[in-house]
Amino acid sequence: MAAARMGRLRANGCALFVCDVQEKFRGLIHHMPAVIETTSRMVRAANVLDLPVFVTEQYPKALGHTVPEIAKDLGQAEVFSKTMFSMCTPELETAFAAKGGIGQVLLCGIETHVCVYQTCLDLVEKHNVEVHLCVDGVSSQREVDRSTALRRLSQLPGVFFCTSEMATFELVGDAKHPKFKQISSLAKETRPEQLSAL
Predict the structure, then answer these.
(1) For the chain, is the Cβ count within 10 Å smaller at the N or the C terminus?
(2) Taking 50 as the threshold, does the pLDDT of residue 150 lie above it?
(3) Is 20 in the active site?
(4) pTM here?
Protein backbone atom coordinates (compact mmCIF):
# COMPACT_ATOMS: atom_id res chain seq x y z
CA MET A 1 0.00 0.00 0.00
CA ALA A 2 2.83 2.42 0.83
CA ALA A 3 4.38 1.74 -2.59
CA ALA A 4 1.14 2.77 -4.30
CA ARG A 5 1.08 6.11 -2.43
CA MET A 6 4.68 6.75 -3.47
CA GLY A 7 3.97 5.99 -7.10
CA ARG A 8 6.67 3.37 -7.46
CA LEU A 9 6.62 2.05 -11.02
CA ARG A 10 6.46 -1.70 -11.52
CA ALA A 11 6.70 -3.40 -14.91
CA ASN A 12 4.05 -5.90 -13.88
CA GLY A 13 0.80 -3.97 -14.23
CA CYS A 14 2.13 -0.98 -16.18
CA ALA A 15 1.19 0.15 -19.70
CA LEU A 16 2.31 2.88 -22.08
CA PHE A 17 -0.20 5.33 -23.59
CA VAL A 18 0.82 7.30 -26.71
CA CYS A 19 -1.50 10.24 -27.30
CA ASP A 20 -1.95 11.67 -30.80
CA VAL A 21 1.68 12.08 -31.95
CA GLN A 22 0.54 12.65 -35.52
CA GLU A 23 2.06 13.95 -38.72
CA LYS A 24 -0.09 17.09 -38.99
CA PHE A 25 1.31 18.39 -35.69
CA ARG A 26 4.96 18.05 -36.68
CA GLY A 27 5.54 21.73 -37.42
CA LEU A 28 3.08 23.07 -34.84
CA ILE A 29 4.01 21.67 -31.45
CA HIS A 30 6.59 23.32 -29.18
CA HIS A 31 9.71 21.08 -29.19
CA MET A 32 7.98 18.43 -31.30
CA PRO A 33 11.31 16.65 -32.11
CA ALA A 34 11.77 15.99 -28.38
CA VAL A 35 8.22 14.62 -28.08
CA ILE A 36 8.78 12.30 -31.05
CA GLU A 37 12.19 11.09 -29.85
CA THR A 38 11.04 10.53 -26.27
CA THR A 39 7.88 8.74 -27.34
CA SER A 40 9.81 6.56 -29.79
CA ARG A 41 12.26 5.60 -27.07
CA MET A 42 9.42 4.83 -24.65
CA VAL A 43 7.70 2.60 -27.21
CA ARG A 44 10.93 0.69 -27.75
CA ALA A 45 11.45 0.41 -23.98
CA ALA A 46 7.89 -0.89 -23.62
CA ASN A 47 8.67 -3.51 -26.26
CA VAL A 48 11.81 -4.56 -24.38
CA LEU A 49 9.94 -4.80 -21.08
CA ASP A 50 6.78 -6.36 -22.56
CA LEU A 51 4.51 -3.49 -21.50
CA PRO A 52 1.19 -3.16 -23.33
CA VAL A 53 1.10 -0.11 -25.61
CA PHE A 54 -2.10 1.83 -26.39
CA VAL A 55 -2.05 4.47 -29.13
CA THR A 56 -4.62 7.04 -30.21
CA GLU A 57 -4.94 9.29 -33.25
CA GLN A 58 -7.13 12.38 -33.16
CA TYR A 59 -9.35 12.48 -36.27
CA PRO A 60 -6.66 10.94 -38.52
CA LYS A 61 -8.64 11.68 -41.70
CA ALA A 62 -7.68 15.34 -41.25
CA LEU A 63 -4.68 15.20 -38.92
CA GLY A 64 -2.78 12.22 -40.35
CA HIS A 65 -1.48 9.11 -38.65
CA THR A 66 1.15 8.51 -35.97
CA VAL A 67 4.53 9.78 -37.16
CA PRO A 68 6.64 7.05 -38.80
CA GLU A 69 9.48 7.38 -36.26
CA ILE A 70 7.04 5.95 -33.70
CA ALA A 71 4.76 3.87 -35.92
CA LYS A 72 7.61 1.65 -37.12
CA ASP A 73 8.05 0.19 -33.62
CA LEU A 74 4.39 -0.25 -32.66
CA GLY A 75 4.26 -3.88 -33.75
CA GLN A 76 0.96 -5.42 -32.64
CA ALA A 77 -0.13 -2.37 -30.62
CA GLU A 78 -3.67 -1.40 -31.53
CA VAL A 79 -4.19 2.17 -32.74
CA PHE A 80 -7.51 3.81 -31.86
CA SER A 81 -9.01 6.64 -33.89
CA LYS A 82 -10.92 9.20 -31.86
CA THR A 83 -12.74 12.50 -31.92
CA MET A 84 -13.10 12.93 -28.16
CA PHE A 85 -10.10 14.52 -26.51
CA SER A 86 -9.36 11.95 -23.81
CA MET A 87 -7.69 8.74 -24.92
CA CYS A 88 -10.26 6.85 -22.83
CA THR A 89 -12.67 6.10 -25.66
CA PRO A 90 -15.07 3.17 -25.21
CA GLU A 91 -13.00 1.11 -27.66
CA LEU A 92 -9.71 1.76 -25.90
CA GLU A 93 -11.31 1.20 -22.49
CA THR A 94 -12.53 -2.22 -23.64
CA ALA A 95 -9.05 -3.19 -24.86
CA PHE A 96 -7.48 -1.80 -21.68
CA ALA A 97 -9.85 -3.78 -19.44
CA ALA A 98 -9.16 -6.95 -21.45
CA LYS A 99 -5.47 -6.75 -20.47
CA GLY A 100 -6.45 -6.96 -16.79
CA GLY A 101 -4.48 -5.84 -13.77
CA ILE A 102 -3.05 -2.61 -15.19
CA GLY A 103 -2.81 -0.10 -12.37
CA GLN A 104 -0.19 2.27 -13.79
CA VAL A 105 0.07 4.12 -17.09
CA LEU A 106 3.08 5.90 -18.53
CA LEU A 107 1.82 8.71 -20.75
CA CYS A 108 3.45 10.59 -23.65
CA GLY A 109 1.94 12.75 -26.36
CA ILE A 110 0.11 15.92 -27.26
CA GLU A 111 -1.38 18.31 -26.50
CA THR A 112 -0.60 18.57 -22.80
CA HIS A 113 -3.46 20.92 -21.94
CA VAL A 114 -6.17 19.10 -23.90
CA CYS A 115 -5.88 15.40 -24.75
CA VAL A 116 -3.10 14.52 -22.31
CA TYR A 117 -4.76 16.46 -19.48
CA GLN A 118 -8.19 14.93 -20.03
CA THR A 119 -6.68 11.44 -20.33
CA CYS A 120 -5.05 11.91 -16.93
CA LEU A 121 -8.36 12.96 -15.40
CA ASP A 122 -10.20 9.95 -16.85
CA LEU A 123 -7.56 7.38 -15.90
CA VAL A 124 -7.36 8.58 -12.30
CA GLU A 125 -11.00 9.46 -11.70
CA LYS A 126 -12.85 6.80 -13.69
CA HIS A 127 -10.37 3.91 -13.59
CA ASN A 128 -8.36 4.51 -10.40
CA VAL A 129 -5.15 4.18 -12.42
CA GLU A 130 -1.90 5.96 -11.51
CA VAL A 131 -0.60 8.15 -14.31
CA HIS A 132 3.14 8.64 -14.70
CA LEU A 133 3.51 11.59 -17.03
CA CYS A 134 6.76 11.69 -19.00
CA VAL A 135 7.40 15.43 -18.91
CA ASP A 136 10.05 15.14 -21.63
CA GLY A 137 7.46 13.52 -23.91
CA VAL A 138 4.45 15.86 -23.66
CA SER A 139 3.92 19.27 -25.21
CA SER A 140 1.47 21.77 -26.72
CA GLN A 141 1.55 24.36 -29.46
CA ARG A 142 2.09 27.11 -26.90
CA GLU A 143 4.41 26.85 -23.91
CA VAL A 144 1.93 28.68 -21.67
CA ASP A 145 -0.66 25.96 -22.28
CA ARG A 146 1.86 23.21 -21.58
CA SER A 147 3.19 24.79 -18.38
CA THR A 148 -0.30 25.61 -17.07
CA ALA A 149 -1.49 22.05 -17.67
CA LEU A 150 1.57 20.62 -15.93
CA ARG A 151 1.02 22.87 -12.92
CA ARG A 152 -2.60 21.76 -12.74
CA LEU A 153 -1.69 18.09 -13.11
CA SER A 154 1.01 18.38 -10.44
CA GLN A 155 -1.78 19.09 -7.93
CA LEU A 156 -3.81 15.99 -8.73
CA PRO A 157 -3.61 12.85 -6.59
CA GLY A 158 -2.60 9.84 -8.64
CA VAL A 159 -0.56 11.80 -11.20
CA PHE A 160 3.23 11.54 -10.93
CA PHE A 161 5.80 13.39 -13.03
CA CYS A 162 8.82 11.54 -14.37
CA THR A 163 11.25 11.67 -17.25
CA SER A 164 11.49 8.85 -19.75
CA GLU A 165 14.90 7.80 -18.41
CA MET A 166 13.75 8.02 -14.80
CA ALA A 167 10.78 5.77 -15.59
CA THR A 168 12.63 3.13 -17.57
CA PHE A 169 15.40 2.71 -15.01
CA GLU A 170 12.82 2.51 -12.23
CA LEU A 171 10.99 -0.24 -14.13
CA VAL A 172 14.25 -2.20 -14.46
CA GLY A 173 15.36 -1.48 -10.90
CA ASP A 174 18.70 -3.33 -10.95
CA ALA A 175 21.75 -3.52 -13.20
CA LYS A 176 21.37 -7.29 -12.93
CA HIS A 177 17.96 -7.15 -14.58
CA PRO A 178 18.04 -9.27 -17.78
CA LYS A 179 16.85 -6.29 -19.86
CA PHE A 180 19.15 -3.69 -18.26
CA LYS A 181 21.64 -3.50 -21.15
CA GLN A 182 18.88 -2.87 -23.68
CA ILE A 183 17.34 -0.14 -21.53
CA SER A 184 20.77 1.37 -20.87
CA SER A 185 21.45 1.48 -24.62
CA LEU A 186 18.20 3.38 -25.19
CA ALA A 187 19.19 5.90 -22.50
CA LYS A 188 22.48 6.60 -24.28
CA GLU A 189 20.85 7.67 -27.55
CA THR A 190 21.41 11.24 -28.70
CA ARG A 191 18.43 13.49 -27.97
CA PRO A 192 17.19 16.81 -29.31
CA GLU A 193 16.79 19.79 -27.00
CA GLN A 194 14.70 18.57 -24.10
CA LEU A 195 11.51 19.91 -22.58
CA SER A 196 11.48 21.28 -19.03
CA ALA A 197 9.41 19.91 -16.16
CA LEU A 198 7.24 23.02 -15.82
Answers:
(1) N
(2) yes
(3) yes
(4) 0.94
